[in-house]
Structure formats: structure tokens, C-alpha cells
Amino acid sequence: MEGKAPKALLKAQKLANLLDTAVKLPFIPIRIGLDSIVGLIPGAGDALMLFVSLRIVWLGKSLGMPKALIAQMVKNSAIDFGLGFIPFVGDIVDIFYKANQKNVRIMERWWLSENKHEVDKVTQKALSEWSAE
Known about the structure:
Order of helices and strands: HEEHHHHHH
Distance between the termini: 26 Å
């Protein structure tokens, strides 16, 4: 492992950024992603984004995350999907409710807790090398 995040987590991070924060809106400090844009298409857009969002959940499951955390991730995705069915208001709320980012944070916290010893070891080695320079 050598203190590096697994490929599944890195893929989930990239996907969440694409879905939730890929585009900075001009003149206002808000970032949106494909989820907010594609979600504007009634019904089909939200369904497509749910499918893509569940890819992040699947990546978490592939890492061996506990069922309770996977259930929380599914819940976040379902809330995001449900918000899309509220005309106009749902689209506005969707900009701020970043389910994919929330799900990746759950994955990151879990992975770090499971690999704390290894991450600490790599960090100590890097600090030792840095202070020796």
C-alpha cells in the first residue's frame, strides 16, 4: 500500500469533483458540476445522475466499506435524486447539496481510519527526509 490511496478512492474523488464541482460560476463563488447541469433535464437527467452517483457507492463497496457506511452513501444519493423532482427549487438546492462529495468524504474518513498506521509511517518517513535536508 505504501500510504497511497487506492485507485477506487482516487476514481471516486475524480468522479465526485466532475459531478459536483467541475465548473466555477462566473461572478459568484459557487462551483457546480455535471449533476447540477444534467439534472436540469426533467426526470431523465436526475435518473442518469443517480446511476453515475451509484458508481461512487459501488467503488466504496469494492474497497470493503462496512454496510452501514454504504447505506449512508446510498441515502445521500437518494436524497439528491429526490430533490431533483421538486421543480425549480430542487435544481437550486441541488447546487448546494453535493451528495457525491459527501459520499467521497465518507470513503476518505473510512479509508484513513483503516490505514492510519501505514499513513502515519509514510508521513514520518517523509518528515524525516525533509528535516535531514
